[in-house]
Amino acid sequence: DWIVLSPGLGHEESNMIKAYTEMTWEVLMKDFAKTQGYVSEKALAFFKSCSDHHISFDNLQKFYIALWYELLYPYIHDSTVQGHSAQGYLEWTLSTMDDKTYQFMVTTVMKYCQSIMLFREGVRENSYAKLTTARRQFAPLWSSRNHTKYDRLVAAAEIEMLRAPDAIKSVLTTHVSFSRFGDPNSHQGIDYVLEEFNREVKRWITRHGDANTWKKVIRNIDRLSSLRSAVEKSLCLNTAKRSPRTRPNSSHDITTFRQHLRSNNYLTPHTRELQSLEGVMLDEDTINIHKLGNQRRIELINGIVQGRLFAHRSRLPPVFITRTERIFYSKDQNKTKSELKCEIEGLIAGLPIEMQAYMDIQADSATKGKKSDIIIYLQQLRETVHDILEDNLHAKFGSDYSWHSRAQILVILVRETQSATQTRRYTVATTDLFQLLHGSFLNSRFMSK
After folding, report:
1. What is the mean pLDDT of the chain?
2. 220: nearest Cα among 212, 240, 238
3. Model pTM score
4. Residue 439: is its pLDDT beyond 80?
5. Which of 128, 269, 351, 379 is at 20 to 30 A from 114, Cα to Cα?
């Protein structure tokens, strides 16, 4: 017998919207929210939290349409373009490589926002092909922004599908989502179907219903629903079947945001660095968010296939969107206990192999305390590692070495560390060692020589 666990599609979609909103918030999503009437701090916080899934999806759809109109506008009005097509637009975007802001917006819309729209379409139509395409296109965002739970869930679900026998695959690809009322275009994830059923059961249970009451209602829910329908019909109450949710006309909202974008020339390609709609410079890694996310995802999938890194995965910093976010993350007080422990692991992995067992024992004891105690231990460990590396530099290369040779020294030390590092700590150890050595090279004691 096979028991296949897969993510609930409804909750997956809502978390996709939340992750995308969080990523683009300081870039231009906050400005979009303000044009839609979310002006106060509480209103903006509600918009960003995506607590109402229906409202969040409607807002994202307006955001998506407005951005596509404005991204296509300079292409349509480019006098050098002869004939317009989807392929022609993709080729034309290569000519805008000097505009990092425009390139980033093309990536966020085509890679991520469009994936959410395709995901919704796949769920509604019970289409495995559309659903899988959307998941794979969106997946690098889970990895790059450290949404660890869904990063692992989606990767594990896809690997499970590849491993499943043909009979199981046939069932899973045929029954992706479900329609309670027989409408072929109104399928839902099984998690939302169960939530609707749960709400229906609760209508028959008092606030303080016990386990026995729940059992009776669930066993007789079909009879109770038939009874309710019969009573409503006899009383001439509205017994119409469930109808699709209606949406207000959004053309005015879309036009308002387009006017705001156009007035700021935000999506008019020209030579410029990566910046937000308000003109704030973004982090240099932001432009490569999809590429970096893909690299991390490949590492995760390889680890799951090889039976490692799933239960424990050293957490790398997220790909930063704003420079302020990078500064905030770099402060120890703003890190979680898990992140502090991962940094400690990485530093220990960069030490000589004969020291690691002792330091592991010491770290295990130190990291069981309060967060403040972990920070103190981490700071002491940094100083220890710094002193050891400095001694190694002098012992291996002498005290009289030039700035030009330090890049070579860095490569040699990193290679030695890689060869002596345990597999589970490989990436974080190399990253932390590089940062530590880079800090050492900028230290005044080194620069003065």
Report:
1. 81
2. 212
3. 0.74
4. no
5. 269
Asked if residue 308 has pLDDT above 80, the reply is: no
Please write down the long-range contacts of 366-375, taking CB distance under 8 Å and 24 or more positions apart: 367/337, 367/340, 367/341, 371/337, 371/340, 374/337, 374/340, 374/341, 374/344, 375/332, 375/333, 375/340
Dihedral of the alpha carbons of 76, 81, 86, 87, in degrees to the nearest 10: -160
Q: Which two tokens stand for residue 340?
A: 């502090």
Read off the pLDDT of residues 209-233 as tens digits, 9 standing for 90 and up: 788 988 999 999 989 988 888 888 8
> Across-strand partners of 282?
322
Two structure tokens written together for 412? 């040699």
Tokens of 432: 């932390």
Report the alpha-carbon distance of residue 399 to residue 449 in Å, rounded. 8
Continuous H helices in 235-322: 251-263, 289-305
Q: What 3-state DSSP class applies to 272? A: strand
Whether the CA torsion 347, 351, 354, 358 is positive or negative: it is: negative
Alpha carbons 197 and 191: distance in angstroms, whole number: 10
| 400 exposure class (CB count in 10 Å sphere: 0-12, 13-18, 19+) | exposed
Q: What is the largest CA-CA distance in the chain?
A: 98
Hey, is 99 helix, strand or coil?
strand
Question: Closest Cα to residue 16, out of 127, 128, 130, 149?
Answer: 149
Instruction: Specify the 3-state DSSP secondary structure of 178.
Output: strand
> Cα 92 to chain center, whole Å?
29
Question: How far is residue 29's CA from residue 35's CA, in Å, rounded to a whole number?
Answer: 10
Could you tell me where the DSSP H helices lie in 28-147? 30-35, 41-49, 53-76, 86-93, 100-107, 114-125, 128-144
Examine the pLDDT at 298 and tell me if it is beyond 80.
yes
Give the Cα separation of 386 and 441 in Å (integer): 11
Give dist(CA 301, CA 140) in Å, integer: 12
CB neighbourhood size of 183 (10 A): 13
User: Residue 257 pLDDT > 70, yes or no?
Assistant: yes
Q: Residue 69 corresponds to which tokens in the numbers above?
A: 């109109």
Burial (0-12, 13-18, 19+ Cβ within 10 Å), 338:
exposed
